[in-house]
Amino acid sequence: MQKLRSEVLSNADEIFGAWQPAIARPGFAESAQNLARYLALRRHELPSLQLALMRWGLSSLGRCESHVQATLDAVIATLGAMCDRDPSTLPPYPDDEAVFTGTQVIAREAESLFGGVKALRRTRILVTLPTEASEDLPWMQALVHAGVDCVRINCAHDTSEIWSGMLRTLRVAERELGSREPIHVLMDLGGPKVRTVRPKKHDKDVYQVGDKLLLTAASNLEQASRHNHGKHKGGLPVVGCTLPQALDRLSAGERVYIDDGLIGTRALERVDGGVVIQITHAPSQGHKIRADKGLNFPDTEFEVASLTEKDRSDLAFVAQHADMIGYSFVQTEADIEALLEEISKRVPSDRKPPALVLKIETKLAVRNLPELIVHAAGKVPTAVMIARGDLAIELGFQRIAEMQEEILWLCEAAHVPVIWATQVLERLAKEGLPTRAEVTDAAMANRAECVMLNKGPHLLDAIQMLDGVLARMEGHQHKKTPQLRVLHSWQSAFSADEGRRLE
Questions:
Q1: DSSP label at residue 294
Q2: DSSP string of 477-502?
Q3: pLDDT above 70 for 438
Q4: How far apart are CA 99 and CA 152, in angstroms?
Q5: Residues 180, 74 share a domain
Q6: Within this chain, do residues 317 and 382 fall inside the same structural domain, yes or no?
Q7: 501 assigned to some structural domain
Q8: What does pTM read for this prediction?
Q9: Closest by alpha carbon to 78, among 444, 337, 409, 70?
Q10: Whether residue 396 is found in the same domain as residue 473
Q11: What are the tens digits of pLDDT across the range 127-148?
């Protein structure tokens, strides 16, 4: 344990030293130091050591995310006392501040970003506003009354006039219901989302496994369509791509996913006008390919600026009205610097800069996550959104399960709040009835500081369900730590005297 502690602190100093120039916000240096120590600790394989510590009833290091050095110090000091070592040769026992400050910082940051906690739950509920919310005051009042903590406006859709209507309706609803504090607003920049484009007179066929398509640049779509006709006429159906850089780097054998992964394909060959791809999986009944659906290239590396010209234009409104700005497809430290520079040009002098929400959606963003956190949170309050839709396609569905856990751990080590997003209670919100799996997913979400619900005709039912699930889980789990509350379901197994004695 002493050797481990020495190596962790030495390696952490090296990591933190490289980060220091990026840290300007008061108080974040301590959080960045803890993150560096956590990364240094997780360079080691620890399972055998953990078992040895558990044998003696000591911390197994499995819940040290928010206070790495304090955990190491406490274990070494206890082992030293058990072995009758000279206390002067051991680190001192950590005080309460060393152990609990990290948890308090996360709670404080979460309150700053998402608003105060509710009586029965600390995990906030974030709801995406539909277009109709700009004019439907009764619906907005029902939303506020349901206990929503913050709202999200997706700037990939609608216009600044509609966004303004959403905000106006929200504030009226708050006033009429006597809300104690304003609901916080997250505005997501659209980012360089790669989407499909279809010809004006494209075929209406349903595509199956084995079908081939021509993937071409959107600017080349009409020309390619004139030389290629629907699959029943001897040619290849044509699908346009809004990001030609992706096609320039796409090689044979690499995967391309369409419509959030509903259709999976592989590139076959490069031809004049684009790349021929073949469908490798699709729904059993087939699937239509419509315009404006997402395209993902999980095997293809290409550079694209995370901040688009549309984002820059939208920032004129967003920087003046949002409490938080969602950064879609952020991947590098340079992306962070670019957005902060654009925000600084647009924020009024009498308004504090909005917080940042880093949406982790790509493999590169996962690899760069520690640096992204430091460069953002080192300057402004920051949260991380686990955007599980695109991330699942980029990483593969098998890996997303472990990766969402690792992102939670890393953010806890950095004392940064997390938003658990994508398809939470999706079927309930859209169809009125939840699946058992998504209720379990909602329960798992209580380890984050905020959970996002998407739009749907039964959204208010989803809010009520999520509120109840989070409130129930609050007493059983905090981050990675189970809370050993009384098991009320089995109280009849105890006699009254035994129950009183246990109390």
A1: B
A2: EETTEEP----GGGGGGS-HHHHHHH
A3: yes
A4: 34
A5: no
A6: yes
A7: no
A8: 0.91
A9: 70
A10: yes
A11: 999 999 999 999 999 999 999 9
